[in-house]
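seq:
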Amino acid sequence: MKLIIAIVQDEDSARLIRSLMEAGYGVTKLATTGGFLRSGNTTLLAGVEDDRFDGAMEVIEKVCKSRKQIATSPSPMASAAGVYVPYPIEVVVGGATGFVLNVEKFVKI
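struct:
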């Protein structure tokens, strides 16, 4: 058995949860916050049997696509008053960051 920990953008989370559940995978949702853009992320936990692991990963890859987005970032040069001027930058968002752990024991109570 494997435990998939998938960190996805909030924008993708509802679709991913629905897709995983329709494919017969159980999933637990945790609300988290990203570090770089301070945007909302969702961390999903899914325990899957070894023979169903590849199918779960295919669902995640299908739903969570990377895309470009314009975000504002504070200027590295502060004015004399110490006020930062935001400027737009293009960043890649979406996709998924995944961690896969071997599960030694699974207990459902």
